[in-house]
Amino acid sequence: SLSKQPVDEYNLGVESDNPFVDLVPKGGELNVVESCGVSNNGRDDVTELMQQAIDACSMKKATVIVPKGRYSIRPIFLRSNMTLKLEEGAQLLGSRTIQDYRDAFPEAGAIETSALVFGKNIENVKVIGPGLIDGRGTAPDFQFGNSKGDRPKVLHFVNCKDVVVENVTLQNSAFWTAHFLLCDGVKIKGVKIYSHSNWNNDGLDIDSRNVEIEDCYIDCDDDGICMKSDRGIFVENVTVKNCTIRTNCNAIKLGTAGKTGFKNITYTDCVIEKASEDNFRKHYESDKLAWCGITLQGPSTISGIALESVNGGVLDGVTISNIQMKDVHTAIFLRLGKREGSAKMSELKNVVISDIKATCVSKVASSIVGVPGGIIDNVLIKNVEITLPGGGTINDANASIPEMIDAYPESNMFGKALPAYGFYVRHANNVKFENVKFNLTGADVRPDYVFDDVTGGEITGISPIVEGKDFQITFQNGSLNILPNVENYIKVDVIDISGKTIYSTRQNG
């Protein structure tokens, strides 16, 4: 009978007890319909037969073949040394009954949760398409609200080694869609995710090391490709490339969970767009204008890039390049803080963000913000072009921004506008902007940059922004080096917080 909790490869039982073992040649294939009598009508519960097929293939280092059809299942548990292959038209349909997941995962918690397809303490395992796995997350049993209830994920690996997920579609999760926790050696390629079924519908959540993510298409309500460090390991050596991320929340995200931290993380050649639907957040509704300060039309993305170190961990060595984004509230958001009773201050350092082209739809500027005693260090923003809607007022420009040291990090955490329309930088060291251009499509009285308590700030390659509008920086406390682009020399004013001009190319240029 079906195991009631996850087991590893050493607890599969005796081969003679499995009715399908003799049908599987070593290293071969087992067709669950032709050889195991599994029904593919989508009505019959085929969980136990499917689990026996998985166990048999693990014993023979073989492949489970799931042909075209609809298969109704409760949770199934993957094993070592096997492949689950979902052929074209194959659909694994998850139980709509929450008790089925509670029975299968009696010790599930908030992080290691239940899931429809689950693997723990296993190695050399593959899930490949082109079929799909459907969590059917809209079921009434799964409606608990935002960040509430013991809802299952579609796919969940815990403490596994050498995992491959390729060319499969994952959809309609009741919670996060795919979560890789404490794993080492993960390859995710050509995966399609569509999850707008419930709150907290993240796309990919990575809390592992040595991970490659490539050629994926993600369309989800919550965070797109998100790194989390909830357990005692660094999330490190992770590469994400050539992915399309559509979300109502944050597309590229590190954090919020960061108790240990992140090292050597790379995102490159990705496209960020608004999600195809917005069933929960509804930024565009009139009562949500505090999110962004501007009336929106349809779905939009909160942040294109969100790097957050707020739980006492270390974020060190992140490179993000060649990113195209549109319909985002904020292009770039870096936040260091101290939350949840962290014993020590978080760290955020050595970040390079380059070759970015973004179109924003809100007054919430990009920001790089630490806290008193917590300084963001060594950030390079290079070859970035951001188109913004304008709309900033004198009140926005003069706004006093609270520290909010222990607040949940989000680009709109300080309100619907910041005192700059381009970048707001506070409590930072060695922050350099090189060839950064802002395009305003509407009037905005705010300065291009605000620097507050920034040492070693530098701006090079300043180019004209708007005809007739001077380039303006508000600056207090620290040091700032400005090197305008000689070929596109324009008027540059640096003013202190009281409005007094402390440098001007009108006088010194």
Summarize it.
By secondary structure, the chain is mainly β. The protein has helices spanning 47-59, 98-104, 394-397, 505-508; strands at residues 29-31, 41-45, 63-66, 69-73, 76-77, 82-86, 90-94, 115-120, 123-128, 132-134, 153-158, 161-166, 169-171, 178-189, 192-195, 204-214, 217-220, 225-229, 235-241, 244-247, 250-258, 261-274, 301-309, 314-336, 347-360, 366-369, 376-388, 423-440, 449-460, 471-483, 492-495, 501-504. The chain is 6% helix and 48% strand.
Any chance you could write out the topology, listing elements then pairs?
Blueprint: E1 29-31, E2 41-45, H1 47-59, E3 63-66, E4 69-73, E5 76-77, E6 82-86, E7 90-94, H2 98-104, E8 115-120, E9 123-128, E10 132-134, E11 153-158, E12 161-166, E13 169-171, E14 178-189, E15 192-195, E16 204-214, E17 217-220, E18 225-229, E19 235-241, E20 244-247, E21 250-258, E22 261-274, E23 301-309, E24 314-336, E25 347-360, E26 366-369, E27 376-388, H3 394-397, E28 423-440, E29 449-460, E30 471-483, E31 492-495, E32 501-504, H4 505-508
Parallel strand pairs: 1-3, 2-4, 3-6, 4-7, 5-8, 6-9, 7-10, 8-11, 9-12, 10-13, 11-14, 12-14, 13-15, 14-16, 15-17, 16-18, 16-19, 17-20, 18-21, 19-22, 20-22, 21-23, 22-24, 23-24, 24-25, 24-26, 25-27, 26-28, 27-28, 28-29, 29-30, 30-31
Antiparallel strand pairs: 31-32
GO molecular function, one term: polygalacturonase activity
Pfam families: Glyco_hydro_28 (PF00295)
Keywords: Glycosidase, Hydrolase
